[in-house]
Design goal:
By secondary structure, this protein is mainly alpha-helical. It is built from eight helices and no strands. Helix 5 crosses helix 8 (about 185-195). It is flat. About 15% of the residues are buried.
């Protein structure tokens, strides 16, 4: 039997099927490939879309929410009863401790910003004054104040004076800058007190209907 190099091999049933590309180079089927009839949808991976979605979520999470004090501080531009700047009235309410705070609180009925600082001046510096007077009164008690508690009373009066002086300068600076600064605990009570006996702004009258 002679062998002919031009003779083609016999085509069997297995050799008649087209060969599928292997997993080598040029025949790689990645995650994005899809074979019809496999029953599974194609899977596509888009790293850029995922990064954009994460950035949007981070922007929504870290979005700045202005505190409620910012909206309340807008009343610094409202008209005042004394026809003065609201920041000037707030500064005056701290100038002579609670004495000027009482005057501003009783006179000012329109501007909430000035009334708040006046109420805070009354509560804070009025409380410090009462505490200082109480400590000094204990120091006047014979034996107990003059001997036993002489050193603690001296330290307590010094602390009260230092706290009062520093807070006086700080609160006047905040009032001059137009800041709605609230002291811990005292600021909440001052905010409630400022709302009492406050004159509400007049509502504009609607125009009369035309016939």
């Amino acid at each position: 039997m002679s062998w002919n190099p031009n003779q083609q091999p016999a085509q069997g049933p297995e050799s008649a099927q087209p060969q599928q590309p292997g997993p080598g180079y040029g025949g790689y089927r990645g995650y994005g490939s899809y074979q019809p009839g496999s029953g599974s949808p194609p899977y596509s991976y888009n790293p850029y879309g995922q990064q954009q979605q994460q950035q949007q979520q981070q922007q929504q999470y870290y979005a700045y929410q202005p505190p409620s004090s910012v909206t309340r501080a807008a009343s610094v531009f409202d008209p005042t009863t004394l026809k003065m700047d609201a920041k000037s009235e707030a500064l005056l309410s701290y100038l002579f401790w609670f004495f000027t705070g009482i005057i501003i609180f009783l006179v000012e009925r329109k501007n909430r910003f000035a009334r708040f600082h006046a109420a805070q001046s009354i509560l804070w510096f009025g409380g410090l004054t009462l505490l200082f007077a109480l400590v000094r009164a204990i120091g006047l008690i014979p034996v107990l104040g003059t001997l036993i508690l002489a050193l603690p009373i001296s330290c307590a009066t010094g602390v009260i004076l230092v706290v009062g002086g520093l807070s006086w300068l700080f609160l006047m600076l905040m009032a001059y800058r137009g800041s709605y600064f609230k002291l811990p605990v005292v600021g909440d009570y001052a905010e409630r007190l400022a709302s009492l006996f406050m004159k509400k702004p007049a509502q504009p009258t609607p125009p009369a209907p035309t016939a």
